[in-house]
Amino acid sequence: MSSALILTAVFIAVLFITVKPLGLYMLPMCEGRSPSVLSKLDPWLLKFTGGNSGKQTWKEYAFCLILFNLLGIVVLYALQRLQHVLPLNVEHLGPVESLSAFNTAVSFITNTNWQGYAGESTMGYLVQMAGIGVQNFLSAATGIAVAFVLMRSFVLKEQAYIGNFFADITRISIYLLLPLSIIYALFLVSQGVIQNFDEYINVNTIAGGSQTLPMGPVASQEAIKLLGTNGGGFFNANSAHPFENPTALSNFSQCLAIFLIPAALCYTFGALIKDKAQGLTLLSTMTLIFGICVAFFIAFESEQSKILLSLGSDSSFMNLEGKELRFDLGHTSLFSTVTTAASCGAVNNMHDSLNPISGMITMLLMQLGEIVFGGVGSGFYGIIIMVLTTVFICGLMVGHTPLYLGKKIGSLQMKLVCLAMLTTPCLVLLATAITCLLDFNLSSLNNTGTHGFSEYLYAFSSAANNNGSAFAGLNANTPYFNIMTALCMFFGRFIPIICVLALAGSFATQSFAAKSAASINTKGIFFTILLFSVILLVGALTYMPALSLGPIAEHLASF
Predict the structure, then answer these.
(1) Residues 6 or more apart whose Cβ sits within 8 Å of residue 242
(2) For 71-89, how does the pLDDT look when each residue is reduced to its tens digit (9 = 90+)?
(3) Each residue of 47-72: pLDDT tens digit?
């Protein structure tokens, strides 16, 4: 257990080293320009992608964003349905079933990357690259673009225009995600992650049987899967597969890649508003919650069930079913907590096999809105929603108009904040309740009772919060789950995005209000504690009744 905590401390230290340089590198893109070393390339790229079409209002920005992503759904759906006539299909795989293709298209466009299929037996190389891989870039760029727009709104004064969607997504994809992915893919290849277009290989096993080893361009997709907090694995076993995650160093680096951009965005924000302490406060709050969750995960995953002990299980062995036996408790705990704190969904073990409370922690991190670092972009604007809620509550307590960075938080802003904040809980809890009422869904469960309820709750928590991981005991590749999770993914992604863009538009049109003695200081330890408290009260307590019926009840019954 002590080694697991030390590994977590090393991870946070290494992460913090990367925050400033990457945060500063993203600053020009946030300001609406290219990094200086690439300034000559910028005009040509923007002309080619439509990014030079002028600045947009928030409504125009939102329209372009939604239309662009709807087009992405159509293209990815078509690629899956037509893959039997497309090249680079070395295993001659047939078209993906229509509802599964629809679910997958929505999943990867929304940066959820929920997978109801096994990649190596369902999709050819071209679909994996031109479909899944491309959308890994574009969905990540979409989230970062929305975060940039919100950041800009705090420095704009009486402006109707907030930027250009096509310019933002082009710069983010080409100047940020692509070079990072190339560098990281080469590192993964050095660790043993495969990258080829070979046919699948049949080998003889030590036991005398035969096994088919899937091949493919894995490293390139693995890189953007992690850096873009996408999470969709090339193989069904995701990062538990040795071709995706071969070594302890690759495992550590994958955790780092997931948090790399979300953490740096906090520094970008502080640099943009010329108050780095504001960004540090956000980063500190995220780190505080993450550290507590990792510690609890390690503690409860170290426990052995009293029921298993009563049946003669050796207390020196943990519950190892479904766990990644190549890595120790520290690597498993770190990966599971990181991937659910961010909207990633990559896994290096089966979360269905976690002890009840450690499984609950992975659920709770998603249910908080994945604001603990969170996904690329979505984590930043998610925690800003919580910041505005905190400032508004404090303003009510002192009877003063709430201000954040000189921008007034009035009734319009709070309506948008509440809509963004309540959308995902409504989707998660309503979808879980409906699923429990329909008896035919019982056939999808691998477990009954409290754990079966947790499988339902986890699935919709993952879908609505753009995560994509799952309790592996649930068979979600059914017509009902394909449709229901797709709806949760789509509305859970785009309703908050539209609210955030509208919020940014309202802030950009304001002038800066004078700060008074009654204004709350939104940086430092005191505000970090306030923000932490509001996140727990507003976020965690929303789901407490549901969690009590699932993992908490299971823990009380078996430990």
Answers:
(1) 192, 326
(2) 999 999 999 999 999 999 9
(3) 888 777 778 999 999 999 999 999 99
Phi then psi dihedrals of residue 363, to 5 deg: -65, -45
User: HEC profile for 101-162?
Assistant: HHHHHHHHHCCCCCCCCCHHHHCCHHHHHHHHHHHHHHHHHHHHHHHHHHHHHCCCCCCCEE
Taken in order 72, 74, 80, 84, is the CA torsion positive or negative? negative
Alpha-carbon gap, residue 231 to 234, rounded angstroms: 9
Please report the pLDDT score of residue 396 as a whole number: 81
Between CA 453 and CA 450 the distance in angstroms is 5
Residues 6+ apart with CB under 8 A from 249: 191
> What's 159-194 look like in SS3?
CCEEECHHHHHHHHHHHHHHHHHHHHHHHHHHHCCC
The CA distances from residue 205 to 153, 199, 202, 208, 213, in Å, are 60, 19, 10, 5, 11
Residues 269, 279: Cα–Cα separation, whole Å: 6
Cα separation of 37 and 304, whole Å?
A: 55
DSSP state of 354: S
Decide: 461 and 367 in contact? Cβ < 8 Å: yes
Q: Which segment of 137-146, 425-434, 500-509, 523-532 scores lowest on mean pLDDT?
A: 523-532
Beta strands in 354-513 (DSSP E): 403-404, 407-408
Q: Is the model's pLDDT at 315 over the cut of 90?
A: no
Structure tokens that stand for 527 in this block: 């505000």
Asked whether the CA dihedral 474, 477, 479, 481 is positive or negative, the reply is positive
pLDDT of 206 strictly over 70: yes
pLDDT band at 210 (very low <50, low <70, confident <90, very high): confident
The confidence score (pLDDT) of residue 34 equals: 84
Burial annotation 476-491 (CB, 10 A radius, 16+ → b, else e): bbbeebbebbbbbbbb
* Cβ–Cβ < 8 Å for 407, 510: yes
Query: Structure tokens of 246?
Result: 């071969």
Angle between helices 248-272 and 276-301 (to 10 degrees): 150
Token pair belonging to 288: 């505080």
Place of tokens 């020009």: 28
What distance in Å separates the CA atoms of residue 207 and residue 395, rounded to the nearest whole number?
A: 69
Contacting residues for 366 by C-beta, under 8 A, at least 6 apart: 340, 343, 461, 462, 465, 467
Residues 559 and 546: their CA atoms lie apart, in Å, by 19
Dihedral pair phi/psi, residue 56, rounded to 5°: -120, 150
CA 92 from centre of chain: 32
Task: Considering only residues 324 and 35, tell me which one the structure prediction assigns the higher pLDDT.
Answer: 35
pLDDT: which is higher, 74 or 439: 74
Instruction: Find, among 463, 453, 419, the residue nearest to 433 by Cα.
Output: 453
Output the CA–CA distances (angstroms, integers) from residue 482 to 20, 127, 477, in the order listed.
41, 19, 6
Enter the DSSP assignment of 513: P
**Which element (helix H / strand E) includes 211?**
strand 210-213
Instruction: Output the pLDDT for position 41.
Output: 81
**pLDDT tens-digit readout, 330-357:** 888 899 999 999 888 888 888 888 888 9
